Amino acid sequence: MDFQALLQQFLSKGVAHQASTFDSLWIFLPELVLSSSIILMLLARLTNVDRTIPTHWIALLGGMSSFMIVLYQFWQISLPDAIPVQIFTGLAMHDPFSIFFRGFLTFFLVFVIVLTVLTGIPDDEDAPDFYSLLSGAVIGMMLMSSANHLLMLFLGIEMASVPSYALTGFLKGRRQSSEAALKFVVYGAGAAGVMLFGISLLAGLLGTAEFPQLASRFQAVFAGREVMQDPAARCVLLALLMIAVGFAFKLSAVPFHFWCPDAFQGASAEVGGFLSIGSKAAAFALLVRFTLSLTGDSTGASQGLALTCGLGLGFLATLTATFGNLAAYSQRNMKRMLAYSTIAHAGYMLMAVSALLVLQSGNAGPDAAYRAIQGLLYYLCVYLFMNLGAFAIVAFIRNQTFSEEIEDYKGLSHQAPVLAIGMAICLFSLVGIPPLGGFYGKAFIFAALFDATRVHWFMWVVLVAGGVNTVISLFYYLRVAKYMCMYERPADAPAVAMPSNSSPGMYVMLLSGMVVFLGIIINPLANVALRAAHAFL
Amino acid sequence: MPQTGDYLMFLLTTAWLLPLVGFVIEMYWLCWSHRLSKGAAYFAVGFIGAGFVCSLLALLIWGGATGWSALSGHHGADAGHHAAAHNDGDHAEHHADDHAVAGHATEHATPVKKYYAGTYYELARFGSLRLSLDWYIDSLTLVMFTMVTFIATCIHLFAIGYMHDELTEEYEDHEVHMHGGGHFSRPGRFYLFFAYLSLFCFSMLGLVLAGNIFQVFIFWELVGICSYLLIGFYIERNSASTAANKAFIMNRVGDFGFLIGLMIIWTSFGTFQFADTDSHDSPEAGLFTMIRGHDGRLDVSEDGKQVYLRDASGHRAEQNGQPRTITYLLLVAAGLGVFAGSIGKSAQFPLQTWLPDAMEGPTPVSALVHSATMVAAGVYLAGRFYPMFTPEVLLGIAYIGCITLFVAATIALVVTDIKRVLAYSTISQLGYMMLAIGVGGWGAGLFHLVTHAFFKSLMFLCSGSVIAGCHHVQDMSRMGGLRHKMKITAYTMLIGVMAIAGLAIPGTSIGFSGFYSKDAIVASALAYYELNNAHFLLFITPLVTAGITSFYMFRLWFLTFAGQPRDQHVYDHCHENPKIMTIPLIALAIFAAGCAWGGEGGPLFRLIADSELVPAVERVVSVGASKVTLPSHQGHDSDVHHVHATAGMLALISAFIGMGLAYLMYVQKSIRPSDIRRQFSSVYDFLLDKWRFDDLYEVMFVQPVHIVAAWCVSFDRKVLDAILHGSAKITVLVSGWDRKFDETMVDGLVNLVGTVTFSIGSSLKVIQTGRLRQYIMWIGVAVVVLFGALITAIPK
Asked: How many CB atoms within 10 Å of residue A521?
């Protein structure tokens, strides 16, 4: 192949709905910007420029500019004649859904960087490493959200995971932190191994690794057979289950959540916040895309598959939410409690995916399915603010009291009302009390579940479990609020000062304000989420 | 390409919102400046002044769009009117009351858009019912905007001087006596005064711009609040806080009726909007079109009990195949309800007693809020809502206005407090406007609204100037001869007095603004009387009252400015005010004298009359129970035109008689007021007691309320409390049992649940051993177990 042919291939459109490699690079610009910001940070360190320009400015600039580019892309794809395209010869997908998540993740990255600047968790010496890892993880998550190929699925998950391991162990001096990181690595490796096994099984059985072809191949292979009783189909199920292990690991769904409490307790609160939101969002993006590609239009053989997947995920979701909430009860460490709370929330969000698949199998029409996706996306957005808010407040309090025990939060509302009120708002929203954002997130998801009950009775069980879980989660969240507001601050406790006009105070107010805002003004975000959902079906 | 409507909307919205910005800045003035700074006032003046510029621009744009029809008089609509008049003239015998011809003529009269309307934001939509923020702009809106912003600018300027003594850290209020014998003192509230004024301007402009009746109601209440705050500006004074309460409560009485009207409208029409919405694919009819269609006529059923509603195209609206109707009585009730709101706000009989007390507020407030703008909002509403009124309602409005104008004028004869004279005169003039609207003189009423706003705000500012000059003396019996010391105040005031008295040079058409507007009202009343002889009072009263008005206004001027000083102390210390207070007087005086230039052929009247939606071109015979006939207005053949000259002459004679009497009594002293007082002492006392309305209300409402309240208290104590105590005892008894049940059974259950969940939670902790080897093993175990579960539980 001579140079001319190569160039031709580089610039040509190729197959329909596929962008040329050159166009793909343009579409890939946000990731490239982040990558170059990583390189810049490392170079700056090498040349000692980081003494004059703090590294976080470079990281912040990278995050913001890639967010801007994503915004521009979202505007562009919203134009009437814009169509979704596959990039890099079908390895990744460029549609409103992936753009939504890339925007979500870069936006989130900016917030996390600001938080770390405010709490000062990486010192100047470590900052380039820390922010490189952070940005790298985000690139991996963005890959996850646009992956369109089994290979990309694996690569994305790993690329998001590996920096996370390092981030968890970033508090180098602390034994707990290193232990947590080690557990995380080994557990992650185990889960990745199982998932890889599953991926190879699936690719082998269906003869393709490209998402868009999975469904048609499946239908072709199992056409006319009594699907779910077929041994080969069971093999597919086993493959899917093994892939699900990888997802469950990222989502910290029960029973693959063991790493989560240990890792969260060991890692700093900032990293905990980052992991609990970023990797979860990316994993959900990938899960939705993967399962919808797998089940396709849910006709013929795929219908049973969709139902099985949906019910299986529903079962996992119920288990996860219940377990997370129950285990959170008796925790005394705030970060550990929040770790279990994130497990429970993964359960709630998993319910949306389960409802989506069940609705698909029942051919309930695209509108119901859109609503399920919309609910998931709305929940994720609210979750960004409320969970990050909670973790941020934990970090701010830790900086002053050097403690993360719930006992030590006693009477904080008298010394730092901003923190106490912000925390109360975030916690109430995590419970799902109106008129906060969390309520509408839950309401959307429960509405989707209710829709799904028409298809299969088991969704009633999931719905009731979701409701009951919401109620019991009230107690352990409220306990924190009670400690903060109802008690006097013990005399010997270290004083906490957080004026509302300090920048951390503003940051907390911004996050909790957004939680309130999303509970009052719902339509704009819900419309954006709906538009993202329209990428499918 | 933006249309004229967009420009107008943009300009007026800017003018409307600027004072709100001002309010926010001034309210938090102490956050960025100090108490002694005049900056707040400059902000307020700047914003309202900018609002005036915007309004004026809008007016110019409107003029351009309509081809300056107000000046030239060749308007599409007018052409139609002329055509109608022409037709009527040709076939007078056949078509005197033929609706078809007139209707035909008005259909021709639509090429020029009479109004622009639109929606800012839709708040909610419940099925077919919708709630939104709208705007509605016609020439009336524009005139009101320009008038309000101009007067407000003048008054803001005046207030900078008038409120000067608030610019202090330690303001001593001489009217508040403390127990220790001293006076109450507090920090000055200069900035706060301007903040309230700005809020008021915002609310008032919002009221005028509002495009639906519910929005009007919102701003209606907002101006009410501002009025409350401003009357009670010297809240430490007992009289001020009482007056503020009185104003607020009496207004609520009227608003109660308003609310009922709103409910009827909401349920019967399903919309609050004035204008049709044409932005959607299927245009929805607004209130006016629903009731009046495009030809301005009520479509009443044969038996007179139902009114057919129209759709956006002007035909009868249908719902499920049935024509949509509203019961005639319900429409009357809705009209009366909304008008009840006007009664409260415009201090009409029987709710007029709050306005004189409202003079407790600072004088600029009296000038802006309680004479020129807010109280006129009632008239404005009656005018704006005119298409919704049935002839019965109009008759009611006319009589209410008639009673009010007479009662208030007679009280004004005997009052000696300079501001109270003006207050009663305001009530009386508002009565004139209501009367005009009631007798079908829509244009005349709103014309008078504008002219009155100018000369009344002028006179209030003059009185404020006098009060400030005389160091807070308000009693006219202690003044006299002040014209030597306060030249500008005295002569601008004289212009105001002549304007309100409605003086003109006999035989010519040169007169003060009040002459033209009052003349228009009296002419409408006369034409109405000629068609409905039974209602002769509606003509006699305003005519007589025109004389009374002239008398008491000149009495005021003579007592204050002419003759010899009656209190040397006051006279000696009196002085003319600085320029910042006198320049607004001069500006207003120019408008008070000349704004109505040209009378009913002049630009102002034409501009206002342009926006009349219900054609008053031809005589309208009422179909309702009251059987009244509304006179025709425009054109050379109209009823009003016939009687115009007579009415003008009669009113002028009446005014001159009043002026002459005042001159004889207070300057020549050839008739001694004290003799008359002695002669008619019972009448005098009756008037001095303000027709004993306050006593009447005390007996009719306040005391019964007290008595009923006392009953309620004793009922509460003797009956309800006894029942309560008894039930409490029983409850204690039962709860004793309940407690035992609770402690053993329920608590046991709850504790059980709590313990179980907690122990499950704790036992779950056991799984989390922290041993890595176990964790990894769990992966394998979980995969196997889940796969087993999956295979067994696969949906068959």
From this structure: 11
